[in-house]
Recover the amino acids of this structure.
């Protein structure tokens, strides 16, 4: 039984024939951009999904361009792509995503013990335990668990200030300006003068000034204005977040649970639903097992789900954890857990690097789980680079030899043992050991005078620990999932640096507003000039953002087109060459594609007729520079673009060159955000920083699993790049699981020993060699 | 002589049949205080009562009018915290600015989710709480009082409580004594929450009794030469409010007249220019329906 794909030709695939054995574990490997995802997701998964939906009469789909000649042997296909799962509702949590939250709600509604004082004799309903439901949400905070409040005492402390100057000390221009305009209008309506001092107001006038009430159009009173302005600015990342008098506090009515009275006074085994949802899944699982209710079908179902989540390495999460804060690997395993529970066979599962974010010792567990899927009669196809994972695969497909147009060929298909003998592959030599990842021989030593020290870290599961980060080195942070790696770096160090360095912290994402526990102390900050955070969040927010727009290359391109004689003659501005501005096709609004909803949340995508799928107006397309119009430029791969821009624009040339060096040469300049993986996004961000002409020294770079999605040869290049940064006098902090990367670090901080309630300590620190000889260290054995 | 072509009587009947409005129970039309059309369906007759649903709100508005006339309440611009201490706790600074007028015009600014078919999910928690008013006082304020019209139950509950506190009894007592009795209306005692002085809906009436409310409004508050509610209040009730020009004091306004409307298609329609009052009653089902087209298309 095999799945036979004939003449696959989507994207860069070069009419390849592929056989995939059914009931086996197949790994598709190859360098980044070689066509792995095109084969696994865009061909196999899309067709599997399409056929299933067609014959079950659920819906119809039409593919305009056939991307293969034939596929035989298909069965229903399920895929977990990182790029899709990253985009999710900001309110969804692990509990809501897995539906365990709903099951717990049902458990509480049915078996909950009610406090007699709140028992009105009427039965409880499930909605009362769900904060997204108007029946269950706390009415004060509407389910968010937080309310905004203003410190009125501080705000009106200085009674000699005039009404107009109340916020003069706030400093931020936006605040002062926004307020000035409104207070003038307000005073006009309220019969007050902006130049009056606060103590000249009568009590009634003071109340009006504070809370409004005279029907003023723009402002109801200073307090509501301040709170609303704060909220408004928060949503738009505006200066108002600097308003010192306004802050968020846990809702006093529900104590932060977001639920109403009934939920707060109903318990199962002595704990409320909020308490259960805040427990680590491993602890919750143990706790529910002790429950006297055991035997009820519902509880059994909940336990099965929880145990699965523990098995796939999600023991360290809590049900209340928001999905957007999970790493790509965690999200994928969350989905994996739900598939394991469904006892099905003959399904084709397609995974995208399932081992991402797993510690060496956790990987084996995951491999066992996947092999169980196979034993049950399923087929698993995984895009993967991990050596252990490949060794346990039954069948290997290697695509390549290189990326983009130099890839897309089938290099090898067959067993792992045969793969070792394959000479054409760029991957096989690393596996067989004939080529090995370079481990550096010279380690930079710690400069005792340049140390960044964090004290009293206790966010999440951290146990009031202190951490020393030597500067000017390549520092690795290791530890099993949930051991506190992200807590120490992303949730303690980064916010603290933001607080101290303010605008010298470069972070694409400003949405985090978590209040920093004030007892964290940081010293050694004087050695840092800038801090650059390179995370895996998408580049840009709009669908049309792409590498070219993000790195600023497109600004040059637009100017270049607008300055061409043809364009100048017609009076075209740079905006004419943007799909977000004048240049966008009116019909598809610059998307190039029109989406028709065909039911069940699925869309039929049809190329826009007006612009032929380009997204540009015919006018902007008519201009070309050196034989390429704006669309051709965006379709160019980065490798090709280097040549094109060589003599045109120095800055763009340098940027493109850096993009190529981080292993993204295969990517097109106009590749849209939704199709860019987390690892790719991170490397684009890294390139943007590296590509600047004066990167300088004394900067701190923070990277989260930079080798995600990279093949061995790509990883090797990345390590070189990072090493360059360090050699130039910068500090690079990487959170990483890959032993090879860690072995190349000058200094390692290992967190542990376990995840969640078992973690939160610094397990070991030192050079890789020191960790190898440290009995406490877990990762040391793998270095 | 009637201004209406009396062919419309048969039209009205046909219209309901053609539209297959199977849940409509009664249609009663008065012109110049004379009954000119009366038709019952689904085994209804002139003695059958039907729930008022939210048309009750307009009766509550009249009840408030009575309180003003009797001096039980001084002014509609009185802040409600004078009657409801739960609103003087400064939970939200805006609480102290909410007046009776805001309650009458559905613009208190308290957050409310109407939900699908107006099933009011937020009422569930309130019903189960010990102190309804305190519960409403905890609900997030989303706008300054008077700024934003949101049709909601909170405002009428608070209004009923204000009247109850002001008269030392229930709003129902006032309505029964000063409106129902003089108009000879048999209603059903409003559902009471005695410890909080709230009496809230639950009323049922015959179609003709409902029409009496409309006729009272049409006649400027006079019933059989007796001033039941002051003419000024009746006039003020149907003036566009600040937050919604299509809404008065718990009365819906249109270009043709003003209307009491309730869940599932209960209506008292008043067309002052034609001197017509038309009542529609319908069976209450979980999904709300509207039959305003019957009167608007044929009468209005």
């Amino acid at each position: 039984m095999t799945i036979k794909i004939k003449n696959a030709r989507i994207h860069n695939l070069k009419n390849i024939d592929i056989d995939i054995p059914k009931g086996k574990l197949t790994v598709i490997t190859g360098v980044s951009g070689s066509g792995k995802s095109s084969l696994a997701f865009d061909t196999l998964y899309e067709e599997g999904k399409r056929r299933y939906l067609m014959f079950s009469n659920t819906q119809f789909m039409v593919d305009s361009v056939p991307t293969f000649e034939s596929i035989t042997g298909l069965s229903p296909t399920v895929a977990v792509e990182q790029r899709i799962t990253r985009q999710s509702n900001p309110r969804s949590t692990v509990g809501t995503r897995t539906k365990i939250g709903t099951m717990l709600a049902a458990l509480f509604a049915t078996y909950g013990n009610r406090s007699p004082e709140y028992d009105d004799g009427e039965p409880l309903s499930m909605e009362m335990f769900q904060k997204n439901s108007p029946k269950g949400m706390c009415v004060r905070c509407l389910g968010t668990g937080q309310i905004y409040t203003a410190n009125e005492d501080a705000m009106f402390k200085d009674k000699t200030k005039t009404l107009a100057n109340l916020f003069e000390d706030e400093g931020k221009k936006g605040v002062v300006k926004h307020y000035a305009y409104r207070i003038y209008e307000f005073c006009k309506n309220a019969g007050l003068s902006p130049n009056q001092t606060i103590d000249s107001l009568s009590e009634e006038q003071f109340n009006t000034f504070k809370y409004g009430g005279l029907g003023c159009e723009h402002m109801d009173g200073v307090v509501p204005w301040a709170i609303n302005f704060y909220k408004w600015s928060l949503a738009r990342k505006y200066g108002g977040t600097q308003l010192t008098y306004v802050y968020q506090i846990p809702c006093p009515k529900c104590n932060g649970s977001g639920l109403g009275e009934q939920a707060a006074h109903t318990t199962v085994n002595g704990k409320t639903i909020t308490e259960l949802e805040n427990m680590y899944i491993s602890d919750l699982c143990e706790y529910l097992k002790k429950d006297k209710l055991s035997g009820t079908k519902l509880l059994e179902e909940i336990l099965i789900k929880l145990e699965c989540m523990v098995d796939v390495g999600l023991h360290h999460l809590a049900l209340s954890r928001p999905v957007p804060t999970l790493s790509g690997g965690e999200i994928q395993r969350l989905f994996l857990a739900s598939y394991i529970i469904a006892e099905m066979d003959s399904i084709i599962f397609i995974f995208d690097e399932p081992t991402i974010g797993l510690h060496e010792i956790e990987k084996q567990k995951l491999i066992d789980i996947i092999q169980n899927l196979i034993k049950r009669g399923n087929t698993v196809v995984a895009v993967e680079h991990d050596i252990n994972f490949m060794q346990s695969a039954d069948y290997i497909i290697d695509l390549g030899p290189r990326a983009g147009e130099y890839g897309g060929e089938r290099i090898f298909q067959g067993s792992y043992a045969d793969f070792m003998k394959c000479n054409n592959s760029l991957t096989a030599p690393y596996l067989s050991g004939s080529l090995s990842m370079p481990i550096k021989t010279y380690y930079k030593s710690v400069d005792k005078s340049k140390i960044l020290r964090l004290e009293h870290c206790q966010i999440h599961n951290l146990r009031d620990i202190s951490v020393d980060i030597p500067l000017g080195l390549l520092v690795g942070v290791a530890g099993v999932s949930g051991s506190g790696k992200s807590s120490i770096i992303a949730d303690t160090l980064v916010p603290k640096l933001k607080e101290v360095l303010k605008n010298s912290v470069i972070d694409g994402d400003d949405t985090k507003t978590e209040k920093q526990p004030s007892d964290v102390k940081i010293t050694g900050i004087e050695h840092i000039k800038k801090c650059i955070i390179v995370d895996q969040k998408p580049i840009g927010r709009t669908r049309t953002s792409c590498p070219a727009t993000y790195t600023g290359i497109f600004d040059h391109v637009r100017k270049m087109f607008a300055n061409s004689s043809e364009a100048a003659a017609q009076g075209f501005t740079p905006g004419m060459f943007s799909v977000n501005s004048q240049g966008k096709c009116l019909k598809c609004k610059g998307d190039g594609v029109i989406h028709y909803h065909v039911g069940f949340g699925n869309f039929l995508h049809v190329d826009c007729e007006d612009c032929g799928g380009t997204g540009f107006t015919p006018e902007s397309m008519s201009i070309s520079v050196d034989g390429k119009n704006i669309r051709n430029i965006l379709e160019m791969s980065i490798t090709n673009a280097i040549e094109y821009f060589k003599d045109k624009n120095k800055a763009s040339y340098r940027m493109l060159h850096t993009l190529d060096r981080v292993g993204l040469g295969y990517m097109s300049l106009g590749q849209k955000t939704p199709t860019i993986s987390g690892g790719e996004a991170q490397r684009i961000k890294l390139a943007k920083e590296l590509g600047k002409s004066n990167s300088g020294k004394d900067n701190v770079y923070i990277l989260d699993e930079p080798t995600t999605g990279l093949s061995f040869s790509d990883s090797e290049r990345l390590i070189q790049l990072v090493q360059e940064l360090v050699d130039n006098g910068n500090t690079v902090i990487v959170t990483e699981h890959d032993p090879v990367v860690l072995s190349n670090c000058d200094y390692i901080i290992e967190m542990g020993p376990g995840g969640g309630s078992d973690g939160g300590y610094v397990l070991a620190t030192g050079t890789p060699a020191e960790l190898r000889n440290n009995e406490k260290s877990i990762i040391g054995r793998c270095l | 002589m009637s201004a209406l072509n009396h062919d419309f009587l048969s039209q009205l009947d046909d219209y309901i049949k053609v539209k297959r409005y199977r849940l409509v129970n009664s249609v009663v039309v008065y012109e110049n205080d004379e009954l000119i059309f009366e038709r019952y369906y689904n085994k209804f007759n002139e003695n059958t009562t039907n729930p008022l649903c939210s048309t009750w709100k307009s009766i509550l508005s009249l009840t408030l009018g009575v309180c003003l006339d009797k001096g039980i309440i001084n002014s509609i611009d009185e802040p409600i915290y004078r009657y409801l201490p739960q609103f003087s706790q400064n939970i939200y600074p805006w609480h102290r600015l909410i007046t009776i007028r805001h309650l009458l015009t559905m613009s208190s600014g308290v957050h409310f989710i109407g939900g699908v078919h107006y099933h009011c999910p937020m009422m569930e928690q309130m019903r189960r709480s010990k102190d309804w008013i305190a519960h409403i006082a905890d609900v997030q304020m989303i706008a300054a009082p008077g700024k934003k019209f949101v049709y909601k139950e909170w405002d009428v509950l608070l209004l009923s409580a204000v009247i109850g506190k002001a008269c030392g009894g229930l709003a129902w007592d006032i309505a029964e004594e000063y409106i129902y009795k003089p108009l000879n209306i048999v209603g059903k005692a409003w559902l009471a929450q005695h410890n909080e002085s709230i009496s809230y809906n639950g009323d049922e009436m015959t179609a003709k009794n409902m029409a009496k409310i409309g006729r009272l409004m049409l006649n400027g508050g006079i019933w059989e030469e007796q001033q039941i509610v002051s003419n000024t209040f009746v006039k003020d009730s149907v003036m566009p409010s600040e937050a919604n020009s299509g809404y008065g004091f718990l009365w819906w306004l249109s270009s043709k007249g003003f209307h009491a409307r309730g869940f599932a298609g209960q209506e008292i329609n008043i067309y002052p220019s034609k001197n017509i009052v038309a009542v529609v009653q319908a069976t209450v089902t979980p999904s709300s329906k509207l039959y305003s087209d019957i009167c608007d298309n044929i009468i209005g």
In short: DSSP finds 29 helices and 27 strands in chain A. The CA atoms of residues 257 and 435 of chain A lie 55 Å apart. Chain A has four domains: 2-76+346-432, 146-250, 451-538+695-782, 547-675.
